[in-house]
Structures are given as C-alpha cells and as structure tokens.
Design goal:
Length: 367
C-alpha cells in the first residue's frame, strides 16, 4: 500500500483505509472489520465535521431490541455506549448484527486537491453513502443523544473517498427534513425508473408498497404516481398508519395486514385488486420475503429496500413458489436520486406533510 506521505492518490474506493483484514485478505471498506478513521486526508479525500448521524431503521431497531431497561423501555445510556463501542472498534458505524449503518449530515472541513466530488470547505452536506463504509470518529461521547431515536446529534469527523457520494443540502429546506429525504432517496428513484419502463411499453403498472406510511414507502408511492403507475396499494400494519394515508391520494387502496404473513398479506392484496406488477418492500423487519413474492404477479418485479431482508429466503422462496418474478436489491444509488427525491418532496403536498409531521414529532420528543 502506498504511503500517504508520498502524495499519491489513495484508492478511490477506500482500500487504503482498511486496517482489518490486511494483505492478501484485504476487502472493501463496507465488509472490512476495521477502518482507519484518522483525520488526515489523502489528496482525493474529503473530511466532514459531523453534525447528525441518522442510523438506518433496521440497525436502530436491532440495537433498541437488545438494550432495554427492567421495565422494557429503551435504555438510552446503553444505546449510547453500544454505538460508541461500534465506532471505536470498527472505525465506522456498522451494526455487527444487521451489517447496516445509516448516513450523516455535516460541514465540509477540508477537501483534498484531487478530490473529484466537487465539494468546497464550508458546504453543508448529506452523505449519500452508508456509514457502514465511511471512516468515522466521534469526539463528544454522544452526550446530546438520548438513545430514543434514529437521529443522533454528534461531534467528530467522517471521511469520504474519491468514489463516495454527497449532496449539498438545499437552503430552502430544514436540514433535518432534507436528511430524512436523502436517507431514502434511492427508493423513489428506482421505483420511478421501473414504472417508466412499463409506461414506455404502453402499460400502467400496478404498484404494491409494503410499509407505505414510512419514509421510503410514502416516497415510493409518490414516485410511482409521478411516473405514471396505475393501481397503487399501500400495506400498513395497523389502523394508526392507515389513518395517516387515508385521503392523501398517495394510494388507491390502503390495507392493513402483517407483511410477514403469506396468507394475511396475499388475502389483503387480493381484496385490493390482486397481485401487483411491482412490489416494493420497505418494512424493516425480517420475514417479508415470501409474502411479498406471493403478492406479486407472474412476470412482475419485487424490490427489496429493507436491510432486514434475507436474500437466501427470497431466492429459495421464489423457487419454492414457482414464482416467475424479477427480484432487485435496492442498493440506494440511482443517478440523480437525491435531486429527484427532493423534487418529489417539494411537489407532492401529501408526502411533504408526512415528512414534516415525522420531523415535528422527533423534535417534540427531544425537548
């Protein structure tokens, strides 16, 4: 590995930051056991002073399920310790159970002279790559985080590589609102792309969204509508979330069903018009793979955006059900995804209302 002092570029995908494993066993940063999160940057890197971490839903749910008080409440102090231990041990925020991380917002502190990212010192940005592969150091002990939500106020720094992605936050939106949107911006962009493929062939595909009241779910419904989808069905787990969506126009049908129940979900979907051409899985619990496949029409497509997805269960489940479906992993990146998600937020009053309601709820809980 070339030494930083020689002034040459680091690996654009961050191999030079991988500490474990090393030598012939070296891996990419996402699958590495430990990263070098030191603050000195290579010529093609960017250092960001962090402001807020946003843990992904699957990771936070797993940690919150483990760290409980005697009366079964989330133990905020234990949550802080757990996240600090992960970052100190691994040099990144990657939940060792779920393998996932999240994203962050912060201010660009230093830009290497050969960075291709187009950022400047002082830019207020959101990273669009996972914390599971981003070198990270925390310096404030997460003293401002109560452990009771995915949003984590923090001080420290993060490093972006030559092939990382970041977006300058728009000045017309609350930074926290923009972070919520960018955290799920891959979902609406991919859904819109698939719907447009159908539309280009003269069809208006039906779209089923599991977790339709959530961030990625509501954005996916709006994107499907924007791209020209036909019937849109939102699946939610209880009446409270159904009430959030009813009357907003994001879905033609809002059904209450357990997305982990093959019979329960397929029955609810059948009552709402039958299996969908495109099924989007946005729930952050395991066990939704086969019900989603069963609720998708032959020749249709299932998009798995949840980090709780068991891909072996999905593949074997499709085989066992004799389901001729295309299955896609929502990898979080589509060219122009951040800009498209922000466009959807600005133009769709219903989605903006849902997101602003979530933000207001989070801010109220933090008081």
């Amino acid at each position: 590995m070339v030494r930083q002092s020689e002034g040459t570029l680091g690996s654009p995908v961050g191999l030079h930051r991988v500490l474990e494993p090393s030598g012939d066993q070296i891996t990419l940063p996402q699958s590495a056991g430990r990263l070098d999160a030191s603050s000195r940057i290579w010529p093609d890197e960017v250092r960001i002073d962090i402001e807020t971490l946003n843990l992904d839903a699957a990771s936070y749910r797993q940690l919150a399920g483990v760290h409980r008080t005697r009366d079964d409440q989330i133990d905020g102090a234990a949550m802080r310790t757990a996240v600090l231990d992960i970052v100190a041990t691994r040099g990144k925020m990657q939940n060792p159970v779920t393998g996932s991380g999240g994203m962050l917002i912060g201010t660009v502190a230093e830009v290497g002279p050969q960075s291709p990212l187009g950022l400047r010192a002082g830019d207020h940005v959101a990273t669009l790559v996972s914390l599971s592969l981003t070198p990270l150091q925390i310096t404030d002990g997460l003293a401002r985080w109560d452990g009771l939500g995915e949003r984590v106020p923090a001080a420290g720094h993060a490093i972006l590589f030559g092939r990382s992605i970041a977006a300058v936050l728009p000045v017309d939106l609350d930074p926290e609102l923009a972070l919520m949107v960018m955290d799920v911006c891959g979902a609406p962009a991919l859904v819109a792309r698939l719907v447009r493929e159908y539309v280009a062939r003269g069809a208006a595909p039906s779209v089923l969204v599991l977790g339709g009241a959530g961030k990625s779910g509501s954005m996916s419904l709006a994107a499907a509508q924007d791209a020209g989808a036909g019937r849109r069905v939102a699946v939610v787990p209880h009446a409270g979330e159904a009430a959030m969506l009813e009357g907003l126009g994001l879905a033609d049908h809002v059904v209450i069903a357990d997305a982990r129940s093959p019979l329960g979900l397929s029955g609810a979907v059948q009552a709402a018009g039958g299996p969908a051409d495109i099924t989007v899985v946005c729930v952050d619990v395991p066990g939704c793979e086969q019900p989603a496949i069963l609720s998708t029409a032959q020749g249709g497509t299932v998009i798995f955006f949840s980090m709780a997805t068991n891909f072996a269960a999905a593949a074997l489940g499709a085989e066992g059900l004799a389901a001729d479906v295309r299955m896609l992993v929502g990898n979080g990146y589509v060219p122009g995804h951040a800009e498209y998600a922000l466009k959807v937020l600005r133009e769709n009053v219903a989605v903006r209302g849902l997101f602003e309601g979530r933000l207001e709820s989070k801010q109220t809980r933090s008081l």
